[in-house]
Amino acid sequence: MAKERSYDYFWNSDSDRYYDADSMGDWLRPFFRNGIFNGQMQVTANDNMSVTVAAGYGYINGKHRHFLTPTTLDLEIASGTLDRIDSVILRRNDTERRIHLVIEKGGNAKSPVAPALTREGAVYDLKLADIYIAAGTVKITQAEITDTRMNAAVCGWVAATVKEIDFTQIQAQFDAYFTAYKKNISDQYQDYIAAIQSFKDQAQEQYDLMVQAFNTYAEQQKELYEDWIAEQESGFEEWSSGQQSAFAQWRQNQEQAFNNWYLNNTGKWTNDFLNWFDGIKGIFGTDPAGALQNEIETLQNIIYSGEVPADLVTADGDELVTTDGDQLIAFWTLKTSETCHC
Fold it and tell me: What is the 3-state secondary structure (H, E, C) of the chain?
């Protein structure tokens, strides 16, 4: 009797039942669906070109792996001109006899798509997340990571097949809503950027017009000022020329009048001076300076003493003299209401 693999684990009798490594997986397969145990193995960004997959259980076609610690996966550098989408894959490889995590790199394109899953032969993939890597990206943020664990078509949560939890429709509805929401936000943002640019352009245009108007006004004022300066200079030159001519004529007239006046009066002044000098020569004698000084001292004595000397003369005007021939002098006392202390 040929040996056969039993899913019910009957007792072996005469080696008619055998069990191998696939026996347990085959036995579990009808009761559980492939996927990640609820809430485990989330993909998070590290603020660089790598992501971390949290610890947890993954189940694929009756076999599972428990990742005891978080796993960090590196991403290749971004293209300088094109975008791409990489996928975080939980892969069962029967040839290598293991379940492990890998980054499946997508192709560069203006409108990139995620790489296709491999589910044939010895390989079966579950996709935990998609990572959008825009051109020139140097670090990944959480915004670029799309969580696909709950999408039953590519991954899903591990659940009993008897009471299966299918989030496909909910996920599709949410994805559609989120895509529309992202597009709406993106459109609003683009409209906002366009409005800001339009406002900037209008402001620049108004500023340019203002600068142009100011420059035109400045040029006009400069021309007016230069014309005014030229007019003032011309008027001043004409006025100055007239003033110089008038001043020259006035000066000539004044010089002529002075010369006439000087010539007319010089002879008279000379005669008057000679007559005056002849008159005082008899008074001062041969020493006019000394005589003048005596007269000054006499006046000072009169002022300080209050006595005025006077020659005594007769009724006929003859001077009175002593027997020795000396002239007689009398002193008249000046009296005031108050004594002067000079």
Answer: CCCEECCCCCCCCCCCEECCHHHHHHHHCCCECCEECCCCCCEEEEEECEEEECCEEEEECCEEEEECCCEEEECCCCCCCCEEEEEEEEEEECCCCEEEEEEECCCCECCCCCCCCCEECCEEEEEEEEEEECCCCCCCCHHHEEECCCCCCCCCECCEHHHCCCCHHHHHHHHHHHHHHHHHHHHHHHHHHHHHHHHHHHHHHHHHHHHHHHHHHHHHHHHHHHHHHHHHHHHHHHHHHHHHHHHHHHHHHHHHHHHHHHHHHHHHHHHHHHHHHHHHHHHHCCCHHHHHHHHHHHHHHHHHHCEEEEECECCCCCECECCCCCECEEEEECCCCCCCCC
Comparing CA positions, the residue from 48, 96, 56, 54 lying closest to residue 74 is: 48
What are the distances in angstroms from CA 281 to CA 51, 245, 278, 285, 288?
137, 52, 5, 6, 7
The band of 90, judged by pLDDT with boundaries at 50, 70 and 90, is very high
- In a 13 Å sphere around the CA of 169, the CA atoms on its Cβ side amount to 2
307, two tokens = 């006595």
CATH of 33-57+66-155 given 3.40.50, 2.40.50, 1.10.357, 2.60.40: 2.60.40
Alpha-carbon gap, residue 32 to 34, rounded angstroms: 7
Q: What's the pLDDT score for residue 136?
A: 94
Over the stretch 92-129, which tens digit does the pLDDT of each residue have?
999 999 999 999 999 999 999 999 999 999 999 999 99
pLDDT of residue 2: 44
What pLDDT score does 337 carry? 53
Average pLDDT estimate for 10-37: 70
> Which tokens go with 310?
């006077």
The tokens describing 275, both together, are 């007559």
In angstroms, what is the C-alpha Rg of the chain? 67
Note whether 339 and 304 are within 8 A (CB).
Answer: no
> Which of 36, 60, 47 minimizes the C-alpha distance to 148?
36
